[in-house]
Fold this protein.
Amino acid sequence: MERRVVVVPELIVIRALACMAVVLMHSIYMVVLGQSEVGTGLNITRLLLLFSTPTFAFMSAFLIGFSKRKRTYAETLWLRVKYLLLPYLCFAVFYAAWQAYNWGMPFAQRAWYNIRGGYHGYFVLVVMQFYLIHPLMKPLMDRFSPKVMIPAAGIVNLLYLAALNLGWVRLPYLGFNWYHLLPAWVFYYVLGY
């Protein structure tokens, strides 16, 4: 049986805009990096371009809901491991080698740091959490309307980030960034689904 590929044109446009925003944001960061004084306009522009990361989270969640109708969960998960997680691990090791060479850091220590989300590819770890949590969340999202689920996810997201940013709780350093965990991104997952 041949599978028909369905293309969502709107996602192509959104992805293109988000990719351009990421490139522009990192370009501005590289310009700003070497300067002690930077104009407010550049900093504001860079901050406004941060919308791109949540946009990718939204698109990933949308594709989970969309592709789950076409494939089994195991097929979908394997494709994400093959096309997202394995390249993520390869780049983490590649960057660790570069960092060890250029910065004189121990390779193994830096590789482990990168694998835990210490480089800009951390987003792959966020998306993989979406795929892992999907079998647990899908029954909830199918049972309750978006009018219930979206505000509930927004409240969880808001409280989690407020707790981290306002110091309501002191979380120990366990080798990863607490901002990379699902509660910090659950709103985008539910919104996208």
About this structure: The chain has a mean pLDDT of 85. The two ends are 27 Å apart (CA to CA).
